[in-house]
Write a structure and sequence with these properties.
- By secondary structure, this protein is mostly helical.
- It has one domain: Winged helix-like DNA-binding domain superfamily/Winged helix DNA-binding domain (Arc Repressor Mutant, subunit A), CATH 1.10.10.
- Helix content is 51%, strand content 5%.
- A two-stranded antiparallel sheet has the order 1-2.
- It is globular and about 40 Å long.
- The N and C termini lie far apart (25 Å).
C-alpha cells in the first residue's frame, strides 16, 4: 500500500505529527485505538471521516517506520 497519498505531515497540524489526509486525527491515535482493542468497525463508527483505507495506511506507515528503525540500528 502506498500510504504516502493518505498520511500527511504538516507543521500546522498537530505539531507536525503524521495525520490522516490532513485531518486532525494522527496515525498514533489510530494505532492506539487498535492497540486498546477497538475494532476497525468501532473506530470507523466513532470517526466517520475515516475509511478502511485510512486505517490500513496507518498500519503500513507504522510497519515502514519500524523497518527503517531496524535498518538504522543494524
Amino acid at each position: 500500500m502506498n500510504y504516502e497519498d493518505i498520511i500527511t505531515i504538516g507543521p500546522d497540524k498537530r505539531g507536525g505529527k503524521p495525520c490522516i489526509r490532513g485531518l486532525r486525527i494522527t496515525v498514533y491515535d489510530v494505532l492506539d485505538y487498535l492497540a486498546s482493542d477497538m475494532s476497525e468497525a468501532e473506530i470507523l463508527a466513532d470517526f466517520p471521516d475515516l475509511t478502511h483505507e485510512d486505517i490500513r495506511a496507518c498500519l503500513a506507515f507504522a510497519a515502514d517506520r519500524e523497518r527503517r528503525l531496524f535498518l538504522v540500528a543494524a
